[in-house]
C-alpha cells in the first residue's frame, strides 16, 4: 500500500519491495555495504537540496542586502520587496513541485531546480534594477520550493525503514547547514564585490549539483493535492504554523540590515548573529522530533513558539549580546519549529500526516509571502525596523495564543 507521501521508489537498489528485499537480503557483506553506501549517498543528496534551495537560495541574501543598499543597487525599502518576491516564488515551487515531478520525473525536476537556482544567482549578479532583481529572486524561491517539497519524501521512500527517522532529520538540517555556510563564506565572497558574491554562490551551487545530479532515483510520485484538513486541532496547528512563518519575516529578511544599518554594528557581528541563526536552526530541527516523542506535539510546539517569540523580542533590545542571542533563538525556534510540526502532524493523525504536512507547508509559505509584502510596505512608510519587529512579535504571539485556546482533546495535550 502506498504511504501518505504518495512516493514509491522504483530503483532496485533502494526500494523496499519483496522482490528487492530478495535482491538485498543481506546474503553478502558486499551487498549490504553497497546498499548502505547508496542510501547514505542519497541522504546526503537530500540534505544538499534544502542546503542549496533554502540555506543559500533564500538566506544567503540576508547578509548581502545591506551591502547592496550601500553600493546603490537597492533602496532600503526595495530589499523587503525583493525578499517578498523570493517568498512568493517559494510558495509557487511548493505548490507546483509535485505536479511537475509527476509529469517530468523526479531526477529531471530536482536537477532542473538546481540549474535554475544557479541561473538565478547569476542573474542577481547583473544590476538591472529592482524589477530584474525581484524576478531573479522569485526564480530562486521557486527553485527552493521545488527542492524542499520533493527531497524529503523521495529520500524517505528509498531508504530502509530503520533509517527513515535519521534521514528526515539530516535532510531538514540542510537548511541550517546552508545558513551557516553562507554566513561563513559571505565575507570572503564579498571581498570580490557584490557581483563576485553572487557569482560565487552560483559556482557553489553548480559544484553541489554536479556531485549529486546522478544520485536521484526514478520514483513514482503522485500529483494529488490532498489539501483538505478537517480535524479542528489539525486546522489550528496549520494556521498557527502559518502565523509563525509570517512572524519570522524580521529575522529572515531584515536581521542583517537591522544590525548593520539600524544599529550601526559591524558586518562581522551581523555575520556572527546570522551564523548563530544557522546553528540554532540545526539544533532546533534535530531536537524538534525528539521533543515531540518525549513531550507530545502540542507541548513541543508551544515550547518552540515561545523560543521564537523570545528571539524576536530580543531584536528590540540594544546590545551586542542581545543581538547574538536573538540570532540563535530565532533560528532554534523559528526554523526548528519545522521539525516539531512535522512530528506533530504524524501525532495528530498518522494516516493523513502527509496531507497535514503539505497543508502546513503551504500555509507557512503563503503567510510568510503575504507577511513579507506587508512588512516591506510597513518598512517603506515608516523607514524604521521597529514596527516590523513588533509586527513579527504580534504574529508569533497570535500563533501561540491560537494553540493555547484550541481544543483540549488534541494528542499530546494531556
TrEMBL record:
<feature type="transmembrane region" description="Helical">
    <location>
        <begin position="166"/>
        <end position="189"/>
    </location>
</feature>
<keyword id="KW-0472">Membrane</keyword>
<feature type="transmembrane region" description="Helical">
    <location>
        <begin position="40"/>
        <end position="61"/>
    </location>
</feature>
<dbReference type="Pfam" id="PF06779">
    <property type="entry name" value="MFS_4"/>
</dbReference>
<protein>
    <submittedName>
        <fullName>YbfB/YjiJ family MFS transporter</fullName>
    </submittedName>
</protein>
<keyword id="KW-0812">Transmembrane</keyword>
<feature type="transmembrane region" description="Helical">
    <location>
        <begin position="267"/>
        <end position="288"/>
    </location>
</feature>
<feature type="transmembrane region" description="Helical">
    <location>
        <begin position="195"/>
        <end position="216"/>
    </location>
</feature>
<dbReference type="GO" id="GO:0005886">
    <property type="term" value="C:plasma membrane"/>
</dbReference>
<dbReference type="InterPro" id="IPR010645">
    <property type="entry name" value="MFS_4"/>
</dbReference>
<keyword id="KW-1133">Transmembrane helix</keyword>
<feature type="transmembrane region" description="Helical">
    <location>
        <begin position="324"/>
        <end position="344"/>
    </location>
</feature>
<feature type="transmembrane region" description="Helical">
    <location>
        <begin position="385"/>
        <end position="405"/>
    </location>
</feature>
<feature type="transmembrane region" description="Helical">
    <location>
        <begin position="138"/>
        <end position="159"/>
    </location>
</feature>
<dbReference type="InterPro" id="IPR036259">
    <property type="entry name" value="MFS_trans_sf"/>
</dbReference>
<feature type="transmembrane region" description="Helical">
    <location>
        <begin position="236"/>
        <end position="255"/>
    </location>
</feature>
<feature type="transmembrane region" description="Helical">
    <location>
        <begin position="108"/>
        <end position="132"/>
    </location>
</feature>
<feature type="transmembrane region" description="Helical">
    <location>
        <begin position="356"/>
        <end position="379"/>
    </location>
</feature>
<feature type="transmembrane region" description="Helical">
    <location>
        <begin position="300"/>
        <end position="318"/>
    </location>
</feature>
<feature type="transmembrane region" description="Helical">
    <location>
        <begin position="73"/>
        <end position="96"/>
    </location>
</feature>
Amino acid at each position: 500500500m502506498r504511504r501518505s507521501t504518495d512516493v514509491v521508489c522504483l530503483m532496485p537498489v533502494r526500494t523496499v519491495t519483496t522482490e528487492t528485499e530478495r535482491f538485498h537480503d543481506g546474503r553478502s557483506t558486499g551487498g549490504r555495504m553497497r546498499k548502505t553506501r547508496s542510501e547514505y549517498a542519497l541522504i546526503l543528496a537530500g540534505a544538499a537540496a534544502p542546503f542549496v534551495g533554502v540555506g543559500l537560495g533564500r538566506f544567503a541574501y540576508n547578509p548581502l542586502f545591506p551591502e547592496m543598499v550601500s553600493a546603490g543597487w537597492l533602496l532600503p525599502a526595495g530589499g523587503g520587496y525583493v525578499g517578498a518576491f523570493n517568498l512568493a516564488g517559494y510558495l509557487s515551487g511548493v505548490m507546483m513541485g509535485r505536479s511537475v515531478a509527476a509529469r517530468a520525473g523526479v531526477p529531471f525536476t530536482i536537477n532542473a531546480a538546481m540549474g535554475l537556482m544557479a541561473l538565478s544567482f547569476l542573474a542577481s549578479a547583473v544590476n538591472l534594477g529592482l524589477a530584474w532583481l525581484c524576478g531573479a529572486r522569485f526564480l530562486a524561491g521557486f527553485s527552493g520550493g521545488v527542492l524542499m517539497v520533493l527531497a524529503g519524501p523521495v529520500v524517505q521512500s528509498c531508504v530502509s525503514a530503520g533509517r527513515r527517522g535519521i534521514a528526515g532529520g539530516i535532510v531538514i538540517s540542510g537548511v541550517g547547514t546552508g545558513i551557516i555556510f553562507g554566513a561563513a563564506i559571505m565575507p570572503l565572497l564579498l571581498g570580490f564585490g557584490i557581483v563576485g558574491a553572487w557569482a560565487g554562490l552560483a559556482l557553489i551551487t553548480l559544484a553541489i549539483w554536479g556531485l549529486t545530479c546522478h544520485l536521484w532515483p526514478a520514483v513514482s510520485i503522485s500529483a494529488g493535492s490532498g489539501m483538505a484538513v478537517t480535524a479542528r486541532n489539525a486546522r489550528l496547528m496549520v494556521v498557527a504554523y502559518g502565523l509563525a512563518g509570517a512572524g519570522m519575516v524580521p529575522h529572515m529578511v531584515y536581521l542583517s540590515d537591522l544590525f548593520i544599518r539600524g544599529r550601526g554594528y559591524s558586518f562581522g557581528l551581523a555575520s556572527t548573529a546570522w551564523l548563530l541563526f544557522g546553528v540554532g536552526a540545526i539544533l532546533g530541527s534535530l531536537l524538534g522530533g525528539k521533543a515531540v516523542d518525549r513531550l507530545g506535539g502540542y507541548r513541543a510546539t508551544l515550547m518552540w513558539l515561545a523560543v521564537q517569540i523570545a528571539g524576536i523580542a530580543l531584536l528590540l533590545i540594544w546590545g551586542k549580546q542581545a543581538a547574538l542571542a536573538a540570532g540563535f533563538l530565532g533560528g532554534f525556534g523559528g526554523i526548528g519549529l519545522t521539525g516539531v510540526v512535522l512530528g506533530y502532524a504524524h501525532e495528530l493523525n498518522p494516516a493523513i500526516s502527509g496531507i497535514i504536512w503539505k497543508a502546513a507547508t503551504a500555509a507557512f509559505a503563503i503567510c510568510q509571502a503575504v507577511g513579507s509584502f506587508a512588512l516591506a510596505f510597513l518598512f517603506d512608510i515608516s523607514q524604521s525596523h521597529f514596527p516590523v519587529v513588533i509586527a513579527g512579535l504580534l504574529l508569533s504571539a497570535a500563533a501561540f495564543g491560537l494553540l493555547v485556546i484550541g481544543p483540549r482533546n488534541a494528542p499530546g495535550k494531556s
